[in-house]
Amino acid sequence: MARPVLFRAPPAWYIILRLVGARIWMSLVLLLGVSVIVFAGTALLPGDVAQMILGQGATPEVVNALREQLHLNDPGWLRYLHWLGGLPTFDFGDSLVNGVPVAEMISGRLGNSLLLAAFTSALTVPTALLVGITAAVWRDSLYDRVLNVLTIATVSLPQFLIATLAVLVLAVHLHWLPALSYRVDISSPMAAVRIFTLPVLTLAFGIFAQMARMTRAVLINTLDDSYIWMAILKGVRPVRLVLHHALPNALGPVANAVALSLSFLLGGVVIVETIFGYPGLAKLMVDAVSTRDMPLIQGCTMIFCTGYLVLVLIADVIAILANPRLRR
Amino acid sequence: MMREAASTGRVRRIPLLAVVTGTLVLGFLVVAVIGPWIAPYPAGGIVTAQLFGPMTAAHPLGTDYLGRDMLSRILVGARYSIGVALPATLGASFAGTSLGMLAASRRGMLDLLLSRWMDMIITFPSLIFSMVAVAAFGSSVTVLVLSAAIIYTPGCYRIMRAIAVDIEAADFVRAARARGEKSLEIMFGEILPNMIVPLLTDFGLRFVFVVLLLANLSFLGLGIQPPLADWGGLVRENIQGLNVGALALIAPAAAVALLTITVNLLIDNLPRR
């Protein structure tokens, strides 16, 4: 006897798609807000950019012509919309220092920075997850306490201290590695190791312990759940307990912890690229700040903020996909 | 009732590590105030011909790239490192806590707007945010303090808002409301006293972040400007000493590390209620 269907739950893929869509939408709204802050902070200041480009000797007519050309005579909101319109096509305007399109300056540098971040993530994420999970299982052991002390040390130490110590030991005293990484040379594995070891080690040192510690914290939360006790009483072996019972349910929070730790890379690369002379986006940004090259600063800042939002978005999507209630 | 339970319990002992680190932190604060008077040499004075000198009795922390006494420069630099970080952290903590409590007590539209605003600010990596501020407004103590305070407000706001929302729902707050206490009385009389421990812990943690942020900015040459030098600036000045393994480079970086580790250990060992 068929009963009339009053309410049918929408299929899982639909719910997932809608949740993911909502997250993407929110990220875009946040990015729009960020663009307002960036533009208002850097472009609406008093002071004449045209005069700055041409120097004090320029005649008022020439300055005014350039102002027209750069749309500087337009009201602020119009200039913002003009700038915003260029963003989706990576048109950040031209550099004030050398007139080269900002997108062109950024494109090569961004790849270098992403390479650095990729190597660092490939090194830290698996090891930190392993250490975090084992520390959660052997809670309050000596191993766990060592990790705790290490975390305090690594979040407290300034990166330039870690970097200089690494250079002192590995480059100055042992002569194993060059102190600077001016050229990105990945033509042979040996060359890549020489270039990337010091910057990657410095970056990894800063985030590894933190990532492991946060992984430990979220897994311990799960391990305290009653269904875990049930599994223990049932006689499930520890490895299976962690991998099959605890971890799948902790996947969302773990992804969040990893993303949050990786987001510290965004600030960390600034110091590391500067110390090692690595030609990445952050180094470009530091140079842009010292020459006050506003379009370049705006472009770099938007990319850094987008990087953060993408990281958080990925973690959110993983959390949605890992939600057991949607895995039907 | 909570207060009674605490006072009838055994006398709580303060952990030894908390006493030691607390004393050290106090020492750092004292040095920040009286640094120039206890420095053995004038911080800006060239006192020896030996550049990047090693540890000696006359110069316990060696000499810098111009032959100036490093110990004196670090003692004087303390006031720029701590003196900028402290007001910035106070600002972030004050703004974060009061806005968090406000959002928790009003909820609704105000809560939503504040929270979205904080989400937006937190999108900026802190160092990037301060770099943009310095690029736009130039590097001055005001810009450094304000940018650090603004960028670290959202972290504090989120934690304090969450805690305040929890406390709002507690029975003693509902009792106070039933008693007819006004919302300001509830905020300061009921909710704030129960937030003190997390507030202090968060303050310490945020202080560490701000110290590191400012040291990094100075290291990049965007923080406190020469001839004044905070600890990050001292590292920058002496960076050519890296090839000779100079103490002048390591000592100020170690000073930053000692301060941040001490504060971290202190908040880790604070008695919990």
Structural description of this entry:
- The complex is a heterodimer of chains A (328) and B (273).
- Chain A contains twelve helices and no strands.
- Chain A has 328 residues and is mainly α.
- The chains are: A mainly alpha (328), B mainly alpha (273).
- The interface between A and B is large, with 45 and 42 residues.
Report on the biggest sheet of chain A: none
What's the count of strands of chain A?
0
Name the overall outline of chain B.
elongated
| Assembly context of the chains | heterodimer
Short structural description:
The complex is a heterodimer of chains A (328) and B (273). Chain A is mainly α and 328 residues long.
Label this structure with key terms.
heterodimer, A: 328 residues, mainly alpha, flat, B: 273 residues, 71% helix, disordered N terminus
List the topology elements.
The complex is a heterodimer of chains A (328) and B (273).
Chain A: H1 12-43, H2 49-54, H3 60-69, H4 76-86, H5 102-137, H6 142-156, H7 159-173, H8 189-223, H9 226-234, H10 238-276, H11 281-291, H12 294-322
Helix pairs in contact in A: 1-4, 1-12, 5-8, 5-10, 5-12, 6-8, 7-8, 7-10, 8-10, 10-11, 10-12, 11-12
Chain B: H1 2-8, H2 16-38, H3 70-106, H4 108-122, H5 126-137, H6 141-168, H7 171-179, H8 183-191, H9 196-219, H10 231-237, H11 247-268
